[in-house]
Structures are given as C-alpha cells and as structure tokens.
Design goal:
This protein is mainly beta. It contains 3 helices and 37 strands. Among the domains are: 180 residues, Immunoglobulin-like (Sandwich); 123 residues, Cupredoxins -  blue copper proteins (Immunoglobulin-like, Sandwich). The longest helix has 26 residues. The protein is globular, with a radius of gyration of 24 Å. The structure holds CU-O-CU linkage and copper (II) ion. The site of copper (II) ion has 5 residues, from loops.
C-alpha cells in the first residue's frame, strides 16, 4: 500500500467517524433567535388541530388568532396592592450576616413579601437597576393571564438595565406562592432574585418560611441556623413553607401534630393530624397548621441544623421523623369539578436521558418522548379541553415538574389511583422510575412553559410548552432582547 493510499484510508476513517458527529452537532444547534410557538413539533394528544373546542369536533384551523401580548390582566382600575420591586445585582448580607454575591429586590433577598386579599387587583412594577442579563418576574403558582406570566421570550421581553415592566392581575385564589425571575432563572433565582407572595388574610399565627440556599448556605427567610418566632401557646399557627431551591426537601413541625392544610396554594380536603414529614418539591409550597403547644414547636427544614422555633421560650429540638406524608392517600376524596374520564386530549410527557449534543455542546441531555430540546413535543390544547397527561421518568434522576398557568390534579401514581383529598399541584415531584397521571382543564389561554424546576435541568433541555391552538407570541427567545427564560 502506497503512502498516499494509506493517507486516504486514514482520511476516510476519520470522515466516517467525524461526519455523523458533525451532523449530530450541526443539527443540535439552537437558533440564536426563534419563537417558542414554533419550537419542536405539535402534539395534539388525540384532539383536533383547530381552534374550536374539541367537543365540537372538526372546524377550521384559525391560526394567527390571539397574541400572547393581548392576554393581559385588567388594564384599567386602581390597584389594591401596588408594589415596586427594584432588581439589583449586588454583594449583600443575608439576614444572618453572611455575605453573598447575587441579586436582590429592594435591597434584600428574599425580596419583600407581597400580601393580597382574594379579589384584589395586584400591580407590581419591576425596575431593573443593574442586572446585566435582564430580569422578569414570574408568579409561581398563581394562574395569572398569560401576558402577566413573566417568561422572557415567551410572554414578554426581558427587562433590560434601566427598564421597567408592569404586571397586573387579580388575586383570585388564596394561597402561598412565590415570585422569581424567569430570565436566566437558573442563575438569577439561585442568586436571590425571588420573593414570597401570599393571597389571603394575615392571621395572628401566620409564619412564612421561604427556604433557599445561597452559596451553599441553606436558609429560612435568609437566615442560616436556628431561629425563633414568638407566638403564645394556644395560637393556631399556619406555617407557609416555600421551597425556592432546586431539590426536594423534607420539612415538618416537631413537638406537636400538624395538619397539611394546603399544597401549592390549594386547600387539602379533610386533613388529618400527622407527625410525619412532608416532602416539599423544588418550587412547591405546603401550609402546615398546628396549635402552638405550651412547650413550643419547631419547623425543621431538612435537618435540625436549619430550623425555626415557634412558641414562647425554647422550642423542642430534634430531627424529623422517618415517616413521610403521602398525598396520594392523605385527606378525604371530594369532587374535582370536572371529569378526567372525559378527556379531550391525552398527552405523554416521558422524561429520559441520552448522550448527544445540545446546542453544539456534547453531554448527557434530558429527553422528552425520546426527543432532545428543541425538537420536543408542543402540547396543543383548545380552551375548555379536559386534558390528561401521563408523566413518566426513566432518566435516572427526580424532576419537579412545573406547569405554568394551571393547576393539575393527580389521578394516579405508578398505576395506583389517588384516594385521598384532591391533590392539586403546580409543581409535582416525579421520582426516577415513577409514572404520574395528572389532569386539568385548559381554562387559561396562552403559551405556557411546562418544565423541570430543578432549574439547571431546564437549561439542559427539560423544558417544553403547553400551547393553545390559535395563540401566537410576538416575543422571541434570544433576539435583540437577549431573552433566555431558563
Ligand atoms: Cu417557578 Cu417556570 O417557574
Ligand atoms: Cu429535572
């Protein structure tokens, strides 16, 4: 074999290896500027592809119908709650004194508590003082009209330095919620660009506990270690616990029995007293109610090292019990208000993982129905549809799945039907090798994110949308505004 032939063979072998890799690399590139409405492929879940409600069958597709930008909250009327939040990139002190490089709202992290009563018109003006990436505010768990949802590149442009954005919505469901940037959320939320929002009356026994990890320091309301809230014995305490981190955390009250009275801003029907801990998914909230005993009680977040004594004087100390509340059977069944058996759409959201390229980067990436971002299914619905979705996970890790704009009810887990209180969620922990069936009514038109709230996972492709037929968005991911929702 001549030297030349040898070189040609070597070249041929190299090409045989590199060309497919190059192809995979090139086809994985995500455009610098694209519309979330044109992402991936439409999955109609067995329903029609027209704008009409599935029950009415057929009909003509009317595309180019409603713009996300027009799906606003009330544009007129004097707000009952009127708050301005100024976002800053800053080096700041936690309430317990540690220094953090991150982000604040009105100089603190967590940002200010926003309190509204049911029926209030809420107006929040976001001002970006100096956050280089830009910022938005998403109302996690509040099913606001789509234009108020705060997702950069989907429902608005990221607010640049010097810019402002006004959010207006009716507070129509009492509950515990939080807000956070949905521009570069994986970085900005971790750095502190979030706060709490509670809808409903402030009772004398209200305790709010937002759990967040700053630079590896886990905190409750921005304080590391143990702390104390004074409440007289006999007070009915309602402890609103919010997990703003990326991983599930067991929380609970020790020193007494408590009742799980609400989950993700929805009341639990007939909650029984428990001592078991509650598994609080990333992004999720739980309201625990208990009468403060004479010796006090203590909220434990993960371990006794991070806890909040509640009562007068010293509260008991100790770790959480090993038992865990299971919402599949907790509380008592009650009517759902719709019939999941009469579903208009049936979707599958199968979470997997495989090696390959994502936007040109080699790695091990999440997949949805076997597809890698951005070639993922777009779940298409029409207003009024009853929607069922089966979420399964064989990816090797757990994922707290968050659907914007809607609350869904859990029908079953691993084939076992839910038998307790209706289990309404906006954020559902789907463990590895678990399968959940959920259902909801498509009653909030728009283009809604449906993603993992372990936020780095969303940047790794575990992100898609629920889309109402006929809705369009003028906003672009990337583009001049630099929109980067994850
Ligand atoms: Cu709390 Cu899409 O987010
Ligand atoms: Cu995940």
């Amino acid at each position: 074999m001549s030297k030349r032939t040898g070189r040609l063979i070597a070249l041929g072998v190299a090409l045989a290896v590199l060309a497919p890799l190059g192809y995979l690399w090139a086809t994985s590139l995500v455009p610098n500027d694209y519309s979330a409405a044109e992402m991936g492929y439409a999955d109609y879940g067995g329903g029609p592809d027209s704008g009409g409600h599935a029950h009415k069958g057929g009909g003509h597709a009317h595309h180019g119908g409603t713009s996300v930008a027009d799906l606003t909250g009330p544009r007129t009327g004097t707000p009952d709650v009127d708050v301005t939040l100024t976002a800053r990139k800053a080096t700041y002190q936690l309430a317990s004194g540690e220094t953090v490089d991150g982000y604040t709202l009105n100089g603190t992290s967590p940002g200010p508590l926003i309190r509204a009563q049911v029926g209030d018109l809420v107006q929040v003006t976001l001002v970006n003082d100096n956050v280089p990436d830009g910022a938005t505010l998403h109302w996690h768990g509040i099913d606001v009209p789509n234009a108020e949802d705060g997702v950069a590149g989907v429902t608005q442009d990221a607010v640049p330095i010097g810019g402002t954005h006004v959010y207006r919505f009716l507070a129509d469901q009492a509950g515990t919620y939080w807000y956070h940037s949905h521009q570069v959320s994986s970085e900005l939320v971790k750095g502190g660009l979030f706060g709490t929002i509670v809808i409903g009356p402030q009772t004398p026994g209200e305790v709010i506990a937002a759990i967040h990890t700053y630079d590896g320091k886990r905190t409750i309301n921005g304080r590391t270690g143990t702390q104390q809230v004074d409440l007289p014995a006999g007070t009915t305490a309602r402890v609103r616990v919010i997990n703003t981190d990326n991983a599930i955390l067991r929380v609970g009250l020790i020193g007494t029995q408590s009742r799980v009275v609400a989950v993700d801003g929805r009341n639990v029907n007939n909650p029984t007293p428990v001592t078991a801990a509650f598994p609080l998914a990333a992004g999720a909230r739980v309201d625990l109610e208990a009468v403060v005993p004479p010796g006090g009680m203590r909220l434990v977040a993960g371990s006794a090292a991070l806890s909040l004594g509640i009562g007068s004087g010293s509260a008991p100390s100790g770790e959480l019990p090993a038992e865990t509340v299971d919402l599949l059977t907790y509380g008592a069944a009650a009517p759902l208000g719709f019939d999941p058996a009469a579903a208009d759409r049936n979707f599958e959201y199968r979470i997997g993982r495989r090696p390959g390229f994502l936007d040109g980067r080699p790695g091990l990436w999440w997949t949805i129905n076997g597809k890698k971002f951005p070639d993922v299914p777009m779940y298409m619905v029409a207003e009024g549809d009853v929607v069922r979705m089966t979420i399964s996970n064989t990816s090797g890790q757990a994922h707290p799945m968050h659907l914007h704009g809607h609350h869904a009810v859990v029908l079953s887990r691993n084939g076992v039907a839910a038998s307790g209180s209706p289990w309404w969620v906006d954020t559902l922990e789907v463990g590895n090798d678990e399968t959940y069936e959920i259902a909801f009514v498509a009653d909030n038109p728009g283009l809604w994110m449906d993603h993992c709230h372990n936020l780095p996972h969303a940047t790794e492709g575990l992100m898609t949308h629920l889309m109402y037929v006929g809705v369009t968005t003028p906003y672009r991911i990337g583009g001049p505004a630099g929109n980067e929702p994850e």
